[in-house]
Amino acid sequence: MALVARLKVLRDLLPAHAWDYFYRYYESAHIAWALSSGLGYSSPWPHTPIAPTAQQPPVYPLLLAGIFKLAGPYSYLSLWIAAGLNATFSALTAVLILRIGRRDFGAIPGTLAAWVWSCWLYEAAVSVRLWESSLSALLVTIGLLALPRLVETLRPWVWLLFGAFVALAALTNASLLSVFPCFWAWLWVSYRRRGLSCAKPLWTSLGMCFLVLLPWTIRNYTVFHRLIPIRDNFGLELWLGNHEGVSRLFDNDFPVLDPSEYNRLGEIGFMEAKRQIALQFIRHNPEQFLYLSLRRGYRYWTAPHVPVWASISVLAWLGMALMVRRRGLDAVPYAIVLLAFPLVYYITHTVSSYRHPMEPVMFLFAAYAVVAIAEAGGRWVLRRT
Fold this sequence. Notes:
Shape: globular
Number of domains: 2
Helix content: over 70%
Distance between the termini: 40 Å
Structural class: mainly alpha
Number of helices: 18
Largest sheet: none
Order of helices and strands: HHHHHHHHHHHHHHHHHH
């Protein structure tokens, strides 16, 4: 059903909106074009020089480049393959929501959350964009599915595999680094509470993650002559939400609208210039920075439709509180996702699609709260009758 909903969205959007809704504004697609054209990992924006970039983590652009190589850069067939692959990632996420929901939240909340994810056309539309969101959501749910296995075994190969998996997640979406290191901390606490130690496999897992990240870091250092573990665009992201006169998401000197400053300074110079502007603004305007951060937090939890998403968010927070109270440490990994993943967007900038990787957890918590409220209401009715 999840796959059917996503294919319906694609049928409605294509081919009329193929360029504007899928190819035009997505840096991953531009980098994939450069890769498939033999120009290397470069050119995240149009009308810029063919030069190396670290603006995006490599996994999703490389995946798109493989599709472009197979079916042609910016072709209609490539778009169907890429968007269909994202739809498949999202459909697999629905299955994992059902599985982890039934295991950790109960049969009814897990089933409810999986059906909402599967059939809501908003989720379907967000998931088929040429972005890493669907893959990121799948990786988060795989990580949550794997944690109990790590709690039960100290076998080195399991922990090595998890370390490689964390590196893959980070090279897909750097924001996931706010979540997965906390999972390692949760595993350490879980073993300590039982009087056991997981220090050796934990360090092994961390070492494997470092080794998998190392080639990309070396590539960035070789190209840019500075340490860039994953991507170099934090200064730009910080500036987008924090500068004088900020009133909308993309000002005119954002490279996709006007690349002249980017072309003049080069990527590293441009990112550094934007970072300095943002930091100076924050230092001189701490009250406004706080106001903007609170406004971003509000938008993060309520966009794109305030009545709907405010209700889901309130239910998700209520469900988190209930589950932590009832399940204690077992509920903490899900709470980590809800608490840690949005942090970077509070201080930089946000749009509703950035929330997509954590929405499976939001739906699980919200469904848990709905079922808990229904059960409490049922008990109240029975007592009254």
